[in-house]
């Protein structure tokens, strides 16, 4: 096979040029150090990102699998006076068949509670809600429930069980929660919204409430807008 | 100011010289101490000769560089005086990260890290299997959970791998893109003195003057979209810059693909909902069964559509070999994209999701939901609901479910049982013979007591916690639609009023889907472009010969042209040039290099030709030197090329290129002609030739 003639002078020049150029470079890495560098940096980054782990509001965790609802994580959001988002129109039919709207309660503090008879935490907070409703009735605070994914028969039985005196809207298709989606979405069941006298949302509690915590909150909201 | 190191992979030269590299003031392996100011290049054949021949290059008393004995462990670059500053370490770290080797290692790690995600049950996909794994491996499971092996793709270490890969790709590709843009106006190299050296060369004679001949050739080549450079008696043309563009397009598209997947994971979400026919649902967190948001998704980000399932239809094959297999599933729905929007109708089928507002709703599963009406001991209706039962076998769709009646008085009631769509008695046992509801029956076990709901802990709606329930003494018997079961002890009555079907829907929102598709297509296009387009060069030299006849030499060079497609193109272009000159061909057809008449060489005197020693061809020869002087790392090989082509600084040189070494040699061959050597260097190289030949 014919080979093109090679000039030794050119070769030598080229070789020398190569080495001179290489001389100015740092030494190239070998794969072992590359892997080591990658591992070290990976470890550092892993430590940094571990702190970011954790569920967001309303994210299903392992515990809620098969429950058929999103358990959500507890969260209390309180808005400063006059700065909360305006509550959307809420209207529907109560479990007893009457038409009711949130606008009917304008001028009163409204506690809006999303619940279902099938929901364990809702059952746990129900006595507290019933007691608070009776306690604050004379102080211009109205309670309104929104019953989700439930049948009227079971919901009425729930109300009888816990002696709930305030009305609840029957909302099997969850349209009322959808109305709140862009402002203060109920991020789990149960969720309690406290709406001020002017129609602005003052607070949102995700998860079951306790008598004392909700009582303090209601007193605070009704005092500030009185 | 330079500093030299022994290249690691250069086996043959390491053995020859001992591999040591010395900065001035150190020890020359195989020689004496070089007085200050002299530098011995390492890896050479005979260091002593080189030391005698070279001028000083570096000038610092420095670190004895790595000898081959240490196995070539990489060290960070030493600044003069061997101070390793923080900046030096950071630069070293960055170079390691952005090297192609690291990127390949990270890609491999990514693939390896995905293996546990396929082998071990994952939380987000099959939580029931995870619970089973816990039950089956009680000691191993918590350890795996600590290592995030049940949620591999959300694990921090997995995120670290693809974040590093992203950084590595970005840190490599972006500077290269800038360089490519900067070198967009780069001119082809000068034409070599002796075009006969090139693998494709022809020559012909013409009556035109050299200037006219070159003009004509240049016009022709420019018309073929070559980039031109002219000089005294020569014309150089280059084509095929798209190859680099294709290469970069591929890498940038990979980056974009990673970014799209990341965006989909951060801003997207997946949710599930089981919907019974006749029910509606709204896309809110309260109305979903499962909600798995991306990191930056909050409940208010969900698209506010709502949907009603009017009717779910499942058809099964009634006879033949495939009896009992489903033939179609379809869910007839009405939906509105936001509150107040007009309602639309649609049908969701398997693999034909509903697209609403960027969200896709897939039909995943189906089953039966028998409807029960339960009156408690006090005679009040406390339950009147369909209850979804989950299929436990596919052949007859036998389904199991649980009913919880927490507000029955005097005791809470619970029921657990089976629903059989086509109930038949086989060998004394009740079974379902066909998945369609031809003979629906339900059979339940009854409990009374405390369901465990009132303490607030969440329970699965498909499981009954019988810890505080007592079994009621009534034997389960199959109930037909309309039949009732009276519970003993005046606990109540259960009536099986009918059944409905349910469909389970998967709601997914992935904003990175379309960008990922575009990135994938672009990556393939870039790859094809980089494979299909070759960098190729053509040179034309015209010199006046005897009798007023002009001798025109045409040479062609293709970088890494394995398929030889350039030969045809070269032959065609050379013929065109010849025709435009009206010349007569002298040399053989293109593709038979070296087939020359001796008179050509005489007409174009060239020192190299006289001194030519038959040897290996250029490609092999210079690649020998490359391997001699350079480690097997891509970086160094290509920095060679890069510095030939582009005025560099160290950072540029460190960026890897995927061109092979042989191709690099062509570049250098073409770029460095003897004319470039200063006179002094020429004599030097002649004296060193003997030692070079000895390598």
Q: Which structural class fits the helix and strand makeup of chain A?
A: alpha/beta
**What is the helix fraction of residues of chain A, given as a range?**
25-40%
CATH class of the domain at 84-224 in chain A: Alpha Beta
Count of alpha and pi helical runs of chain B: 18
- Strand line-up of the largest beta sheet of chain A: 1-8-7-4-5-6
Please give a quick description of this structure.
By secondary structure, chain A is of the alpha/beta class. Chain A is 37% helix and 18% strand.
Structure description:
The complex is a heterodimer of chains A (226) and B (695). With 226 residues, chain A is α/β, with parallel strands linked by helices. Chain A has a domain of 141 residues: 3-Layer(aba) Sandwich (Glutaredoxin). Chain A contains six helices and eight strands, in the order ααββββαβαβαββα. A six-stranded mixed sheet of chain A has the order 1-8-7-4-5-6. In chain A, strands 2-3 form a two-stranded antiparallel sheet. Chain A is elongated, with a radius of gyration of 32 Å. The N and C termini of chain A lie far apart (103 Å). With 695 residues, chain B is α+β, with helices and mostly antiparallel strands. Chain B folds into six domains: 84 residues, no CATH class; 78 residues; 126 residues, Kinase associated domain 1, KA1 (TATA-Binding Protein), CATH 3.30.310.80; 38 residues, no CATH class; 241 residues, no CATH class; 83 residues, no CATH class. In chain B, the strands form five sheets. In chain B, strands 4, 6, 10, 11, 12, 20 and 21 form a seven-stranded antiparallel sheet that branches. In chain B, a hairpin with a 5-residue loop joins strand 22 and strand 23. The longest helix of chain B has 27 residues. Chain B is elongated. The relative contact order of chain B is 0.12. The interface between A and B is large, with 99 and 138 residues.
């Amino acid at each position: 096979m014919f080979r093109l003639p090679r000039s030794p002078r050119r070769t030598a020049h080229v070789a020398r040029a190569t080495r001179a150029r290489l001389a100015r470079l740092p030494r190239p890495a070998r794969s072992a150090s590359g892997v080591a560098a990658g591992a070290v940096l990976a470890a550092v980054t892993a430590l940094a990102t571990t702190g970011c782990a954790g569920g967001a509001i309303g994210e299903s965790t392992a515990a809620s699998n098969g429950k058929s609802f999103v358990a959500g994580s507890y969260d209390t959001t309180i808005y400063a006076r006059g700065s909360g988002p305006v509550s959307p129109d809420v209207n529907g039919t109560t479990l007893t068949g009457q038409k009711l709207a949130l606008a009917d309660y304008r001028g009163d503090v409204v506690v809006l509670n999303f619940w279902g008879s099938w929901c364990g935490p809702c059952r746990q907070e129900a006595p507290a809600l019933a007691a608070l409703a009776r306690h604050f009735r004379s102080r211009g605070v109205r309670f309104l429930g929104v019953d989700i994914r439930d049948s009227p028969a079971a919901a009425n039985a729930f109300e009888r069980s816990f002696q709930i005196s305030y009305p609840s809207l029957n909302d099997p298709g969850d349209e009322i929660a959808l109305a709140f989606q862009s402002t203060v979405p109920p991020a789990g069941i149960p969720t309690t919204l406290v709406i001020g006298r002017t129609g602005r949302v003052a607070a949102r509690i995700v998860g079951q409430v306790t008598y004392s915590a909700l009582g303090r909150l209601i007193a605070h909201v009704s005092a500030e807008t009185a | 100011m330079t500093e030299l190191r022994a290249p690691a992979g250069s086996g043959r030269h390491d053995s020859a010289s001992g591999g040591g590299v010395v900065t001035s003031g150190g020890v020359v392996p195989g020689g004496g101490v070089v007085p200050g100011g002299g530098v011995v290049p390492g890896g050479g054949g005979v260091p002593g000769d080189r030391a005698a021949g070279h001028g000083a290059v570096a000038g610092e008393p420095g670190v004895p560089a790595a000898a081959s004995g240490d196995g070539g462990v990489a060290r960070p670059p030493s600044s003069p005086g061997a101070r390793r500053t923080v900046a030096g370490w950071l630069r070293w770290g960055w170079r390691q990260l952005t090297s192609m080797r690291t990127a390949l290692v990270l890609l491999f790690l990514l693939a390896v890290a995905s293996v546990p995600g396929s082998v071990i049950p994952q939380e987000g996909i099959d939580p029931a299997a995870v619970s089973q794994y816990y039950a089956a491996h009680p000691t191993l499971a918590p350890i795996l959970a600590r290592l995030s092996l049940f949620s591999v793709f959300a694990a921090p270490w997995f995120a670290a791998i693809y974040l590093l890969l992203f950084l590595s790709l970005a840190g490599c590709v972006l500077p290269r893109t800038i360089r490519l843009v900067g070198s967009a106006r780069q001119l082809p190299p000068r034409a070599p003195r002796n075009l006969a050296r090139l693998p494709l060369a022809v020559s012909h004679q013409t009556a035109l003057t050299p200037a006219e001949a070159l003009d004509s050739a240049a016009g022709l080549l420019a018309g073929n979209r070559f980039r031109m450079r002219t000089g005294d008696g020569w014309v150089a043309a280059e084509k095929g810059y798209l190859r680099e563009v294709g290469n970069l397009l591929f890498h940038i598209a990979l980056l974009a693909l990673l970014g799209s997947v990341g965006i989909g994971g951060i801003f997207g979400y997946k949710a599930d909902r089981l919907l019974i026919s006749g029910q509606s649902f709204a896309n809110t967190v309260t109305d979903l069964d499962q909600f798995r948001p991306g990191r930056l998704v909050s409940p208010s980000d969900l698209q506010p559509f709502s949907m009603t399932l009017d009717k779910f239809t499942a058809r099964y094959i009634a006879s033949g070999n495939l009896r009992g297999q489903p033939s179609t599933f379809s869910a007839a729905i009405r939906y509105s994209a936001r509150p107040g929007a007009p309602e639309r109708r649609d049908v969701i089928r398997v693999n034909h999701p509903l697209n609403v507002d960027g969200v896709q709703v897939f039909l995943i599963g189906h089953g039966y939901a028998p409807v029960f009406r339960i009156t408690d001991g006090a005679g009040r209706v406390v339950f009147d609901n369909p209850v979804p039962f989950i299929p436990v076998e596919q052949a007859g769709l036998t389904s199991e479910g649980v009913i919880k009646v927490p507000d029955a008085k005097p005791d809470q009631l619970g029921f657990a049982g089976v629903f059989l769509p086509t109930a038949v008695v086989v060998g004394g046992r009740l079974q379902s013979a066909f998945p369609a509801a031809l003979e629906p029956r339900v059979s339940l076990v009854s409990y009374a007591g405390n369901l465990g709901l009132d303490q607030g802990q969440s329970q699965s709606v498909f499981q009954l916690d019988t810890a505080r329930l007592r079994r009621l003494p009534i034997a389960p018997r199959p109930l037909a639609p309309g039949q009732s079961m009276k519970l003993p002890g005046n606990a109540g009555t259960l009536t099986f009023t009918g059944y409905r079907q349910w469909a389970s829907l998967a709601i997914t929102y992935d904003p990175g889907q379309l960008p990922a598709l575009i990135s994938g297509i672009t990556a393939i296009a870039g790859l094809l472009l980089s494979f299909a387009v070759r960098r190729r060069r053509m040179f034309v030299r015209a010199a006046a010969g005897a009798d007023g006849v002009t001798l025109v030499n045409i040479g062609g060079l293709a970088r890494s042209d394995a398929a030889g497609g350039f030969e045809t193109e070269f032959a065609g272009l050379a013929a065109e040039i010849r025709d435009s000159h009206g010349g007569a061909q002298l040399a053989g057809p293109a593709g038979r290099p070296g087939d020359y008449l001796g008179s050509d060489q005489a007409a174009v005197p060239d020192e190299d030709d006289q001194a030519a020693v038959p040897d290996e061809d250029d490609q092999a020869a210079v690649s020998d030197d490359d391997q001699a002087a350079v480690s097997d790392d891509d970086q160094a090989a290509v920095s060679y090329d890069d510095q030939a082509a582009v005025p560099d600084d160290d950072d540029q040189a460190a960026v890897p290129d995927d061109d092979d070494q042989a191709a690099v040699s062509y570049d250098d061959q073409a770029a460095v002609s003897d004319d470039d050597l200063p006179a002094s260097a020429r004599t030097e190289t002649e004296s060193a030739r003997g030692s070079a030949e000895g390598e």
